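Check this:
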Amino acid sequence: MRAWAVTELGKPLKEIELPTPEPQGDEVLLEVTHAGVCHSDLHIWEGEYDLGQRGKLRMTDRGVKLPLALGHEIVGRVVKWGPGAEGKGLEKGQIRLVFPWVGCGTCARCARGEENLCAVKSRSLGVYQNGGYATHVLSSHYKHLIPIDGLDPALAATYACSGVTVYSAIRKLMPMGAEEPIVVVGAGGLGLNAIAILKALGHKRICAVDIDATKLEAAKKQGATDTVLAGADTAKRIVEACGGPVLGIIDLVNGSKTAADAFDAMGKGGKLVQVGLFGGEMNIPLPLMPIRAITIQGSYVGSLPELHEVVKLAQDGKVPAIPITLEKMANADAALHRLKDGKVTGRTILVAG
């Protein structure tokens, strides 16, 4: 198979030939038709996370091996499967969305459908296994394949990361009243999907925050009721836009500045859900945590059951589509660099051919 892979950290992706996997056991081989370009791909390509004063967390220390085909937002066409998948309703040519956040498959968390939280062995596609920037991808289990009948496959691809990630974060904020403002920090692909899914769930007050006025305009079109252009006094602007300190914030950037601004904008009993991997560190005055009864919670992608729920919402026509730009797979490196340079509104989807 052909792959557009990281062969050297921080260097241009290269088109290389890799052995086409032969599915074993419960595995399924798919021909990739669509693959989203996600900001997490940039972190893997760069090879490290910024931990502030603690230094860097290097991807190679986490078990990432090169060469690696990036891409975890994948839609593909079923080609063949292992003997364990016989009789499970698979047919050649079926179009399926692939759940990428694969765990060990046998621990208690994996058994509960929480493979994204597996502490035994992560096998996530596009991170520890070759992902969607390729002609083929190997799904670890037939149960990870989700029908997307009635959906645009380019849009459906975004649900495997962008959609399920924000859905999982939103669930951590609930319950909240529909008129209670929820702040979404970051109006990129995740931010727009967060707005779309909040609307699908019936939420009416959504405040989008970003440093880019163009992305805030996209957030308005997506359904944000309020927008805040981030700057020196972002927390104050958030409080003013929301009519007071807020009880729910999802930080899809999660850098030192956004975390501090989010904390300062929180009201008593509020919750901050941190999703992004921009990096740095958060310094907070500890007495204010109990005095204001604030909760800070991390949220890492989402589970297989949550992805099924997102797809069902979309198939029911409740999730407004985010802007999608199609790009040929052969231009994967250019697409990744456009994202790095902040030149993408919504999501870029790589397509075969």
Notes: The longest strand covers residues 28-37.
